[in-house]
């Protein structure tokens, strides 16, 4: 479902929902970061998505990464909680969602790179090459925090 992201935009529509979601900063043994080129907003991002009823939050991370990338992961730690009310996503069905995302670190334990209906491209990216990708500022914040590997999670 196509979406439009509004970030610090005074003309953005008012949010009418909040859906807990997850993203995972997955790094391979070479230190590369697993990235997807999203089909809904045409931006590069960490893999992730909504938390479903009946699953734990760590199960949601494992499921979303597998669905969007083909890679099996083990969740390692939490990077932070991102709830910026000035970042909303408007979907074509009328939903306007306020950002609520928990970012985790995870390590790959199997699988092979594969695209999905949500990812037009999937690749391992050297952190030095992230500047070449079109990444939303809110997602870039998560990536930067994950790469810093701080002891305390970001809460904001």
Topology record:
Layout: E1 3-7, E2 17-18, E3 21-26, E4 33-38, E5 44-45, E6 48-50, H1 57-69, E7 71-82, E8 87-91, E9 96-98, E10 101-111, E11 119-125, H2 137-148, E12 154-155
Parallel strand pairs: 2-9, 3-10, 7-12
Antiparallel strand pairs: 1-8, 3-6, 4-5, 4-11, 7-10, 8-9
Concise account of the structure shown:
The chain is an alpha/beta fold and 156 residues long.
Q: Taking strands numbered 1, 2, ... along the chain, how are they ordered across the largest sheet?
A: 6-3-10-7-12
Put simply, the count of helices is 2
Average predicted local confidence, pLDDT: 95
At the fourth CATH level, what is the homologous superfamily? Nucleoside Triphosphate Pyrophosphohydrolase
Mind telling me which CATH architecture this is? Alpha-Beta Complex
Which regions are unreliable across 5 or more consecutive residues at pLDDT < 50?
none
Textual characterization of the structure:
The chain is an alpha/beta fold. It has a single domain (3-151), classed as Nucleoside Triphosphate Pyrophosphohydrolase (Alpha-Beta Complex), CATH 3.90.79.10. Helix content is 16%, strand content 41%. It has 2 helices and 12 strands. It has helices at 57-69, 137-148; strands spanning 3-7, 17-18, 21-26, 33-38, 44-45, 48-50, 71-82, 87-91, 96-98, 101-111, 119-125, 154-155. The strands form 3 sheets. Strands 6-3-10-7-12 form a 5-stranded mixed sheet, with helices on both faces. A 4-stranded mixed sheet has the order 1-8-9-2, with no helix packed on it. Strand 8 and strand 9 (96-98) form a beta hairpin. The longest helix is centred in the middle third of the chain and has 13 residues, at 57-69. The mean pLDDT is 95.
């Amino acid at each position: 479902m196509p979406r439009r992201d509004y970030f610090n935009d005074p003309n953005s529509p008012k949010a009418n929902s909040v859906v807990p979601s997850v993203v995972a900063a997955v790094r391979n043994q070479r230190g590369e970061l697993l990235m997807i080129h999203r089909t809904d907003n045409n931006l590069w991002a960490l893999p992730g998505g909504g938390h479903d009823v009946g699953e734990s939050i760590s199960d949601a991370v494992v499921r979303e990464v597998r669905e969007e990338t083909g890679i099996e992961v083990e969740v390692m730690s939490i990077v932070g909680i991102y709830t910026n009310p000035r970042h909303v996503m408007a979907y074509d069905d009328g939903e306007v969602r306020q950002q609520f995302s928990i970012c985790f670190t995870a390590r790959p334990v199997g699988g092979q790179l594969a695209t999905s209906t949500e990812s037009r491209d999937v690749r391992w990216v050297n952190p030095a090459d992230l500047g070449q990708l079109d990444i939303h500022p809110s997602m870039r914040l998560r990536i930067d925090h994950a790469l810093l590997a701080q002891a305390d999670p970001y809460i904001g």
